[in-house]
Amino acid sequence: MSRWDDYNKRRRRGFFDIFDEIFRQMEEEMNRLLREFETLETRGFIEELGPTRRLGPYVYGFRITIGPDGKPVIEEFGNVKKVEGKKMISEEREPLVDVFEHEDNITIVAELPGVEKDKIKLEVSDDKRKLIIRASDTNRKYYKEVELPAEVDPKSAKATYKNGVLEVVLKKIKTSEKKKGYEIKVE
């Protein structure tokens, strides 16, 4: 086959053939990474945890969203954390959480599958800028500290839980409602 025939053969490849090749390479790379994780990383987890630590389940994932500034935001979730260069497995999973800011309130949606409603504990921090979610059942434990975009009124909280999804609505504290200093008259 001449160089010209080879060129024409490559040139006739369709637009989607290029994507097929890219996806095939991505699939091969993912399979290679999974095989590597199953062999090396699992042994590393066992060595780091020691013989007394219960293994599994491992829950790890991430999601990518676009923030309000147009930049991508990567959020990790699960119970596998890297602390000071070592992998740690926590009994508490970090759930996926979405925070929606509206004009008068903030809505927090958290995924807590497999937990009974009465096992969920919610707490607003002293500075009123953080929601702490704790949930524990016989098989699952969740913990997440959610940074809030504004100060909230904890007394206004309304929480619902259905089909493994927790929704919390908190009213914002307006700047005019924040505690102001008191004026002292001089007599």
UniProtKB/TrEMBL annotation:
Domain spans labelled SHSP: 87-187
Residue ranges the record marks as coiled coil: none
Native organism: Staphylothermus marinus (strain ATCC 43588 / DSM 3639 / JCM 9404 / F1)
GO process terms (BP): response to heat
Residue ranges annotated for the CS domain, each copy included: 92-183
Key words, A-Z: Stress response
Name of the protein described by the UniProt record: Heat shock protein Hsp20
Pfam family, one: HSP20
Family: Belongs to the small heat shock protein (HSP20) family.
Transmembrane segments: none
SUPFAM superfamilies per UniProt: HSP20-like chaperones (SSF49764)
